Amino acid sequence: MAIQEQRLVLKNIGHIDPENIRDYLGAGGYEGLKKALSMEPAAVIEAIVDSGLRGRGGAGFPSGLKQRFTNDSRPGCRERYVVVNADEGEPGTFKDRVIMEQDPHLYLEGTIIAAYAIGASQAYIYIRGEYYESIRKTQKAIDDAYAAGFLGKDILGSGYSLDVGIKLGAGSYLCGEELTMLESLEGKRGNPRIKPPFPAEKGAFNKPTLVNNVETLANIPLIIARGQEWYRGIGTGDSPGTKIFTISGQVEKPGCYELPMGVSLRQLIELAGGMRGGKSFKSALLGGAAGTFVDESMLDTPMSFDKLREKGATLGSGAVIVMAEGDSVYDILHNCLRFFRHESCGKCVPCRVGTTQLVRKADKLRNGQPGREKLLSEMLRESEVMAATSLCPLGQSPILPVESAIRYFKKELLDGEA
Ligand SMILES: Cc1cc2nc3c(=O)[nH]c(=O)nc-3n(C[C@H](O)[C@H](O)[C@H](O)COP(=O)(O)O)c2cc1C
Ligand code: SF4
């Protein structure tokens, strides 16, 4: 039987006016916040730990543990922050935009609950500067939440106070990386910081900071309102809940689809109307440029953080770019490498030189030069060295598409033909 969408995070989309807080309230909005405020902050954190929620920004880190670390770190420090990562720069990813444009109160509510849990009195939403509608609608949601008593001093008479403001990104992919984002948030150039310390210890303005993706936060009101056991019953043991997949490329109906974690790529493609024009599936790039190519042998693998990792693939942000027979894996790989070269900040040598070298070698591959086998092994070696020596995760990423393209499509890369 064909799989159906399971809309939890996207449940209000198309049913409410995102600019009308009364619509959101009528759909059960801010019930999670009301319940959270009736609980001890520590109990909110434990509920998120028990729910098994994992970060939807790409790394899949357990969200409850992150809250706990941020809450527990530097007990003497009175200031702490929540920063919402709404930079959405990973190629092929467009789910956070849908939440921000169509249901902004949902992730705002999640932000308020998370801030209450860790005792933050200030939250920032770092939104990609080109996302004009997301910025406008989020600002409207913030203004309406203040007016309704969900933000500001003494929220709903609980004694808890929180302010939320928007900061804009300026189109840098690297500024989606959490520590770089914090530099940019503080008004500095978007260069990465060295980890550790992690944001939970020294984040925005050197204070303990919880950084979460928009989709992650949008899950929180649902978990608090309906309970962690309910949430754990959806998805897989290692990755509870749903995931919003953004599927593009050679399918009939590209777009955002919310499905339980553990759905297969085959089911997702079917839901997206099947392969365009009845073409045969060839490959998909999972997780964007910092993701992995897979071939048809992976069509039935459950898509969860751990199940994909066991097979050497990534779920990442949930981007799925589908290729059909006749499409060139080389072209997509070449695009990814040019993207990394363009987005490298140039601060460290392995990435600054490595991203350029990778593009040069990929160019030589295209020109049909002899010694292609050697070129491929040099590209692999170059990206391994980058992964081991680069300062930040951007330079550690090219190994993912390079290694997986070679693993599945070596013959094509050697022959120079799709
Ligand atoms: C180069 C790079 C770009 C990133 N871009 C984003 C992004 O646009 N949005 C996002 O939520 N996370 C992005 N991340 C992941 C963040 O660093 C971080 O893991 C995430 O915001 C944590 O939130 P989560 O635990 O809710 O997933 C990026 C990471 C890297 C290395
Ligand atoms: S790895 Fe790349 S993006 Fe990261 S600091 Fe080094 S040069 Fe900059």
The unique ligands bound to this protein are: flavin mononucleotide, iron/sulfur cluster
Helix content: 40-55%
Task: Describe the largest sheet.
Answer: 5 strands, mixed
Stated plainly, the CATH topology of the largest domain is called Rossmann fold
Main-sheet strand order equals: 6-5-9-7-8
Considering the protein shown, what is the CATH homologous superfamily of the largest domain?
A: NADH-ubiquinone oxidoreductase 51kDa subunit
Secondary structure topology:
Blueprint: H1 21-26, H2 31-37, H3 41-51, H4 63-72, E1 81-86, H5 95-102, H6 104-118, E2 122-127, H7 132-147, E3 163-168, H8 178-185, E4 209-213, H9 214-226, H10 228-232, E5 242-249, E6 255-260, H11 265-271, E7 281-286, E8 292-294, H12 305-310, E9 319-324, H13 329-343, H14 349-366, H15 372-389, H16 399-415
Parallel strand pairs: 1-2, 1-4, 2-3, 5-9
Antiparallel strand pairs: 5-6, 7-8, 7-9
Bound molecules: flavin mononucleotide and iron/sulfur cluster (SF4).
Flavin mononucleotide binds at residues 55-59, 61, 63, 85, 87-90, 173-174, 176-178, 211-213, 216, 393-394.
